[in-house]
Amino acid sequence: VQLVESGGDLVQPGGSLRLTCAISTSISSFNAMSWHRQAPGKQRELVATITRGGTTNYADSVKGRFTISRDNARDTVYLQMNSLKHEATGIYCCSAGLWLGEYHYWGQGTQVTVST
Asked: Which of these, 27, 35, 66, 115, could form a disulfide with 47 (CB 3.0-4.6 Å)?
């Protein structure tokens, strides 16, 4: 199973980005698809999760600004990020889990930098 992220870029504060995670197998095999962030000098944190049924959960720091979605036909997960702040800077990785709260497969990540 391979996960490939894309969409990371340099963006100004207040800007938007959409990250994409393409999975090499049927996304329906996994109940939980998640996005994680590794900020410089900090531990990796869970940003958002979406279940097979479409239930979503977000870190408090991104609620109302980030939206996770999945396209089962395209075996792809997205993370729409709006009103970006400096603290959103980091490497964003997606993961696939057979069950909620588990992260069995990981992508390499895509770099997001929020800066003027």
From this structure: 35
